[in-house]
Prior knowledge:
By secondary structure, this protein is an alpha/beta fold. It has helices spanning 23-32, 49-61, 88-91, 101-108, 127-135, 165-175, 191-202, 234-246, 262-271, 308-315, 336-341, 371-383, 394-399, 403-409; strands spanning 4-8, 14-18, 40-43, 64-68, 73-77, 110-114, 139-143, 146-150, 157-159, 181-185, 206-208, 214-218, 227-229, 250-254, 274-277, 281-285, 290-291, 294-297, 318-326, 345-349, 352-357, 365-367, 387-391, 413-417.
Amino acid sequence: MEPLYRVQGGGPLRGDVGASGAKNAALPCLAATLLTAEPCTIRNLPDIADVGGLLAILSQLGAEVDHDPAAHRVTVRAAGPLAEAPPDQLVGNQRASFLVMGPLLAREGRGACAAPGGDLIGQRPLDVHLRGFRALGADVRTEAGRFVASGRLRGARMVLDYPSVLGTENLMLAAVRAEGETVIVNAAAEPEVAALADLLCAMGARIRGAGSHTITVTGVAALHGADYTLIPDRIEAGTFAVAAAITGGDVRIHDVRPRHLEALLSKLREIGVEIDEDDEALRVRRRGPLQATTAQAVPYPGLATDLQALVTTLLTQAEGVSTVNERVFENRLGYVAELRKMGARIVTAGSAAIVQGPTPLHGAVVQGLDVRASAALVVAALVADGETELRDVVHLERGYEDFGEKLRGLGAVIERRGVAPETPRA
Length: 426
C-alpha cells in the first residue's frame, strides 16, 4: 500500500515543537565533504529521504559514510579514489544531486552527472552551473547523456543570469580549490548559501560575502576535515507557524532563527497573526480574524517560494480577496486544483493565485505534487471539516522529518498509513 496521511480537521494546534536541521543546507554541505580526504562530521542532520538519497550517492562515489539517523549525525570520509559520476538512477530522484559536480571537478579535475530530477515545479535549467564552470576554465560537454566538466580551474569574475541557489552553491564548491580569486555577482543570498560557506571556511576555504549578492572566493590548494552543525530549517519552522495561524492555535516553535523568516513573519503580522520572538524561538497565536493581503514569492530576503503554497492556503481563511504572485518557479501553482477539491475559492492567472476568503474547507482526497505543496495540503486539512486523505506523501517525507508525529504532539488528529518505498541508504 502506498503511504498516505489521513487528517481529521477542526482543532487548534497548541504546544511546543522544534524545527529540524535545514534540508536545503544539509544537501550542499554533504556535497562539500567530497572536497577533502579527511573526515567531515555534519550534525543536526535531518532524517529525511533527500538526505538518505544524497548519502547513497556519496557512498557510490567512493566515500565512507557513517550515518547515525537517531543522533542526527553523519561522518563522511572521501579518502578516494572517487568515481567521476554518481549512478544515473540515484541522480534522478533529486535536484541537489547535481551539487557533486563542483567538488568532483575541483578535487579530481573531472566530474560528470546526469540531468537531475526533483519536484516538477518549473524550469530550473542548469545553465548557471555550466556557464560558471566554463568561466572557471572547465571544458563542459555532454557524453552518453551526462554532463561532463574537466580541466584545471582558475578564478574568474562571473555575473549569474539569476540568483540560483544551487548554481551559486555549485560554483562556490568548484571555486574553493581554483587557482586565484573568483567573484560571483548576482549570487543567491539565502541563509543556506551562507551555511555552506561557513562549513567550507571551517574546512580551510577563504570566502567573503556569502549571504550577500556578491561572493568572493580565494582558492586554496587543499581543504581539511571539519565538524559542523547545520542551521535550523526555516521552511519547516514557517510551516508550523502557518499551521498555528490557520487553526487559531498557540504554538511555540523552538530551534529556529527568526531573522531567517523576516518576510514571512512580517506578512503574518500584517494579516492579523500575533508573533513573539527571541533569538531561537517563536510563539505564534491567532485570536481574531485574518485580513486579506498581497504577497510575492521572490528570492531571499523576500518571501521564500517554498512558503508560497502555505501562505496561499492560509489566505483561504482571510476576509477579502488576496493575491499571491509566484516569481521564482512558473509551475508552482499546481496544488491550487487540490485545494479547490477542499472547497477553496482560488483562481490562477499566469503566476498569480487570487484567493477569495474566508472559505470553509472540507475533507477530500488530494494528492501531494511536491514537498511544499504536500505540506500546504496537510495544513489545509487541519482546518477542514471532516477527514482529508493525502496521497503521495513520499514527496512530503523528502523534506520533513516526523511531520505527522510533530503535528500530533500539537494536538492534530493525523495518521500515516502504508509503507514508503525504500530510500537508498549509504
